[in-house]
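User: I've been going back and forth on whether these two constructs are worth ordering. Before I decide, could you fold them both?

Assistant: Sure. I'll take them in the order you sent them. The first construct and its structure tokens:
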Amino acid sequence: MGKFCYNVFALLLLTLVFSHLQLTLTIGLEFQGVG
């Protein structure tokens, strides 16, 4: 059971990091387009 919880936590963390990366990339591209 512990391993399952760890996998879910890892997946959640990965999704969070990926979404944050995507957001940073989008904002960076927008600023580049403006500047």
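The second construct, handled the same way:
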Amino acid sequence: MELWPWLTAALLLLLLLVQLSRTARFYAKISLYCALCLSVSAVASVVCLLRHGGRTVENMRQGPGRGPGGSPRRRFRFANFPLSSPLPAPPAAAVRAESVARRRPPGIISWFVRSFKYVYGLRFDVKGREKLEVDRPCVIISNHQSILDMMGLMEILPRRCVQIAKRELMFLGPVGLVMYLGGVFFINRQRSSTALTMMADLGERMVQENLKVWIYPEGTRNDNGDLLPFKKGAFHLAVQAQVPVVPVVYSSFSSFYNLKTKLFTSGTVKVQVLDAVPTSGLTVADVPKLVDTCHHAMRSTFFHLSRTPQENGVAEGPGVQPAQ
């Protein structure tokens, strides 16, 4: 019995459902996203092993000055123009910001993941990107909304930046493997003593190896239109290592992605990197205040970026000023 007619009919029915039903489109796009993650992770893992031979943060994103092929990049500098050039010089700050963005060499993993946005028609409008491109260790914190956050993370991932993820992700086949090869630190949230030991070791490595650490302080995905209370682990890490905290805020995805209403279309995500919050001289006793300062600043910025300043009965207020 020939299966082709049945398969063709099933495919046509699926295409019809995708065209007529928002729910069908939603699950089709989610299924495609998961399939992309699995297939791309498998390919990227092989490339990482061939390129760097194993686990290294360089698999996530290349170091400065070298392109994906390992060769130094040629950089265009306005300083090379003669003083008599008839072209008007742009503002210095704009030149610096643009040059930082243009010379960001992608790593293996970030290059693959950043390509997802073209499949889904997503655009990232980033402000303050240069605040991440500093040659010093720091703790980067950001809000966590959905499985799509991975694209947003890779869009602005600075060099020598590792992430902290729950241990369960390590067992997701090729996804877990590529995360491991990219230098991700897996934390067992069920065993607090092990988690504390790992965080203490990471604090020392940050300073010794000049690493940045990206953490989602909410601890879980949240799409309720507000920020959840922050867990203190990221802030204890920053105080222990005496490194600054750099908040990063992504606008609400609700205009193009909503799990409850099964909405998944193209859209724009606004991203704001806030000014670094110093921790020099702070102690464990200062952690609660540090948490409140960062939470208030990020929450205020989240409402501003999402155009919902009064959502959930919350008003905006002063906080850490966003980077311009």
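Notes on the second construct follow. The chain has ten helices and nine strands. The radius of gyration is 22 Å.
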